[in-house]
Amino acid sequence: MTTRMINVGEYNLHLTEVGAGEPLLLLHGFPDSANLWRHQIPALVNAGFRVIAPDQRGFGASDKPQDVAAYRLPECIGDILALLDELGVERVKLVSHDWGAAVGWGLAALHPERVVRHVALSVGHLSSLWAAGIAQRRLAWYMLLFMRVGEAEEILTRDDWQWFREIFQHHSEMETWIRDLSRPGALTAGLNWYRANVDLDTWTREGWVLPRVRVPTLGVWSSGDAYLTEVQMVGSQAWVDADWQYLRVEGASHWLMLDRPEYITRVLLDYLR
Prior knowledge:
Elements: E1 2-7, E2 12-18, E3 22-27, H1 41-46, E4 49-54, H2 73-87, E5 92-97, H3 99-110, E6 115-121, H4 126-129, H5 134-139, H6 142-146, H7 151-167, H8 174-181, H9 186-197, H10 200-204, E7 217-222, H11 230-234, E8 244-249, H12 256-259, H13 261-272
Parallel strand pairs: 3-4, 3-5, 5-6, 6-7, 7-8
Antiparallel strand pairs: 1-2, 2-4
Helix pairs in contact: 2-3
């Protein structure tokens, strides 16, 4: 794999790129980096894909602006469009997860000419997510904590990151996350994704409103996801004016590509090919 910094306008993104076939874009979320896809990338390259996996702004080795407004979804979608333009890539197949899925759904909805097909992991269409009712709000309670600037950082890191460890259920990736988020400005940058896109009005009223999607889409949700209901993924079908497929994965947490790597790799290969 080759990694490099690539300029996308005001900021630089750290990019993992490997392979020389059909372009395939992988977008991670919080609190990850492109390293999230390490189990899938070799098989995807062997299957003939050119894998493009950036650390999204604020994560990994990419630039970490501290201004909350820098993390509004239109800004982050703009990063990906600029990245594709810089690489000379007109259309991609897309796999996305968590906040990466929010960007992925936005890319598919607003720029369908750039996306061939989309695999959305864990997070459904944003309009479906915010129509999923109080059960979804209960699971996403931690977002209210993350909105507290300064306070959240102190709470999450106290006592050797105990709150952070418990919120994310002592996942096996924990030490990697803590190491990455301990970089200067990294935790605030990651939390700013929530602060820029969630507030009490969106929490209690209409929430995110996203156009309908005209890109073939596979939605994948895992039964052990402690943060997202199945309803919000299944309900995404109502927002997709193209081929829609849904897959429920048993026995995996929110990080299903880490918990069930071989299975998720097969799912991606079957759908993307």
